[in-house]
Write a structure and sequence with these properties.
- The strands form four sheets. The chain has a six-stranded parallel β-sheet, with helices on both faces. It has a three-stranded antiparallel β-sheet with strand order 7-10-11. A three-stranded antiparallel β-sheet has the order 12-13-14.
- Helices cover 43% and strands 18% of the residues.
- It is of the alpha/beta class and 330 residues long.
- α1 crosses α9 and α4 packs parallel to α5.
- The structure holds nicotinamide-adenine-dinucleotide and (2S)-2-hydroxybutanedioic acid.
- Nicotinamide-adenine-dinucleotide binds next to α1.
């Protein structure tokens, strides 16, 4: 049996965590042979911590073979001690009629102190996935604070995997294929309504996706449905997506750590100039992961239709950045 690793989850009493914790505890994220110690972080509010104690009672009641410890914390300096993997979920969700960037004021301030605490206390190889919205800019805030403490910004990702999975599912339904028969899906840019789900390189059962669907469907149905899926779920459920968000977080971290076997996945990672997206934002790119490292897929042709959409989502990310520039210096 491997040595236990420490997995920190913020927002541990919230709705995503209620699904995520149990998936991690059962081995879906790091594999069936990887024991875990769960570091559950919440705000220092007695009612919230009491609720979290109830979740811990349920973790105990599952008698998970892989769980070697469960900790409750309300201080990130204590909660991130020795952390190997961190899932930063804790943040306010949006309600009907809001855009995710409307949450910047409420949530941005959470991620600087968490980045700083991760740099001070976590394992130096820690991998961090930011789920709390607006995820890309929150990841930028956390990565910037952590870089001052010696971590590499590449250790901080934002989650666009839910968008990627939504895009795969929409295309599978449209073409009558199974999800597993869709490859080379890409979601570029921001986890927001400007994201660009791109079928240019995508294949279905090895055939180009664009030979199976028409351009009108791509423009009028596929792209808007994926872009607006979060809002559609809020409208239907009265709450934002939770189980599907947890599942995407498990997919993202599993692929980052255990590898993608050459398959492409969409990950929000620090822009490095690839595809004309200048450094300074956390941008959704097609990635391949191997030996615990990710690489942006290089050399793809970008047509004018894609270029315009990739630039529009980049522009939005830079506007978000400008709105929180003070938090990057704090
Ligand atoms: P929720 O309100 O059910 O839970 C959030 C929890 O975070 C609360 O229990 C709250 O007390 C806690 N929290 C707040 N600040 C914290 C802090 N500083 N430290 C630790 N915990 C803190 O919300 P939810 O539905 O679980 O969603 C959480 C976030 O994830 C929201 O911002 C939501 O918009 C976002 N989200 C992102 C994606 C994505 O694809 N990236 C998908 C779904 C939801
Ligand atoms: C989602 O995409 O479901 C989440 O980001 C929640 C939201 O606000 O849409």
């Amino acid at each position: 049996m491997k040595k236990p690793v420490k997995v920190a989850i913020t927002g541990a009493a919230g709705q995503i965590a209620y699904s995520l914790i149990f998936r991690i505890a059962s081995g879906s994220m790091l594999g069936p042979d990887q024991p875990v110690i769960l570091q559950l972080l919440e705000v220092p509010v007695p009612e919230v911590l009491e609720k979290l104690k109830g979740t811990v009672m349920e973790i105990d009641d599952c008698a998970f073979p892989l769980v070697h410890g469960v900790e409750i914390h309300s201080d990130p300096m204590a909660g991130f001690e020795g952390t190997d993997y961190a899932l930063l979920v804790g943040a306010r969700p949006r309600g009907p009629g809001m855009e995710r960037k409307d949450l910047l004021t409420a949530n941005g301030g959470i991620f600087g102190p968490q980045g700083k605490a991760l740099a001070a206390k976590a394992n130096k190889d820690v991998r961090v996935l930011v789920v709390g919205n607006p995820a890309n800019t929150n990841a930028l805030i956390a990565a910037t604070a952590a870089a001052r403490g010696g971590l590499d910004p590449k250790q901080f990702h934002a989650m666009v995997r839910l968008d990627h999975n939504r895009a795969v599912s929409q295309l599978a339904t449209k073409t009558g294929a199974h999800n597993t028969e869709i490859e080379k899906m890409i979601v570029w840019g921001n986890h927001s309504s400007t994201q660009y789900p791109d079928l240019s390189h995508c294949t279905v059962r090895g055939k180009p996706a664009k030979s199976l669907v028409d351009q009108a469907w791509i423009e009028k149905e596929f792209i808007p449905t994926v872009q607006q899926r979060g809002a559609a779920i809020i409208k239907a459920r009265g709450l934002s997506s939770a189980a599907s968000a947890a599942s995407a977080a498990v997919d993202h971290m599993r692929d980052w750590v255990l590898g993608t076997n050459g398959k492409w996945v969409s990950m929000g990672v620090p822009s490095d100039g690839s595809y004309g997206i200048k450094p300074g934002v956390v941008y959704g790119y097609p990635c391949i992961c191997k030996n615990g490292q990710y690489e942006i897929v290089q050399g793809l042709s970008i047509d004018a239709f894609s270029r315009a959409r990739m630039d529009a989502t980049d522009t939005e990310l830079r506007e978000e950045r400008a709105a929180i520039e003070d938090l990057l210096k704090a």
